[in-house]
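Cross-check.
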Amino acid sequence: MASDLTFTGERFVPACAGEIAYEHWHRYAFARRYAEGGRVLDAACGEGYGTALLGAMAAEAVGIDIDAGSIRHAQSTYGSARIRFVEGSCTRLPLPDASFDVVVSFETIEHLDTADQPRMLAEFARVLKPAGLLVISSPNKRLYSDARGYVNEFHRHELYRDGLVSLLGDTFPAQRWFHQQVAFWSTIWGEGDGVGVEAWLGEAGRVAPYASPEGMYFIVVAARTTAALPATAVHGSLFTDAEETEQKRAQADAGEVLRQDALIKDRDAALDRQTAHVRHLEALVAERERIIADKDAQLAELDAVRQQREELIALRDRGLAERDRMLAERDAAVRAQADAMAASVAAFDTERHTLRQEIASRDQEIIARQSLRWCLSLPWLKLRLWLSGR
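Predicted model, tokenized:
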């Protein structure tokens, strides 16, 4: 059944399918037996579909919810002579005392603060007749939250079993407990009438009676006295929808698993090919690294030779510099010697010129003297020659 209300992730609407639909629809289907022929209150009725289901069995069904939009939708969609909807809070019901045979409250108590939970139960007790029944559900905190590490942002205070027992005990001490959890079963049913339900557990090659575990949700039928509790109608209850959405979802999931498995196989084959290619590339890289290592060694040798060459060149440059310095010193000394020799030669030349001048002067003086002596000695010479010739 379609709904014009938007699914928020918490408030169920009939358009939802799958596990959440199974949980919500099954609770109301289970509770209808207690509403038959009586006046029933659906507390926190939400969209109103559950109130309508109860109203089909009850003499009168009233749905109450704090959300005005939900109440308007419910009244316009499901309202009838036997089904009506009222806006109000579960902790302050706008309803008279002892006016209902049954109060149904599914997945409500965990949305209240700790202080408001006993107030809601007190209000339920107030509007119930003395022999009235409360049919209430609550998520099992141990499995719903703790085991899954899950936090529901809409829940204010979730309860463990002992907490719910204690909370109900103040106003509804007589309690009959049921558990709810969506599971996958192989179901066998007969075409004719039958008696009882059997459940089997198969493991490790054997089959044994199935021991009912703790469920994800608690459903409690509670009353003020044990006498007010009805006889147990069923030990177990199964639910599915006409479209078998959960089975189709499971089949779709299985098909998806097969598809993913095929993809994984293809991926594995591709990975094998890629692995072989990677190994080939790794071998090439290793060979490249070996070549690089050889080149590095050769370069290291060349660097050593270059360094030695540079040291020899530096040594040669130092020798050349020293030689140039010595040559410069020698050249300077030679120039100094040459300058000194030039000065000596110049002095010698000057002295020689002076001597030459002196010699020339003396030579002239000697010549002059010799000429005078000759003149003076000539007569004597002639006389000696005369005398010797005689």
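Residues 20 and 47 are 15 Å apart (CA to CA). The mean pLDDT is 86. Passed to J.P. for a second look.
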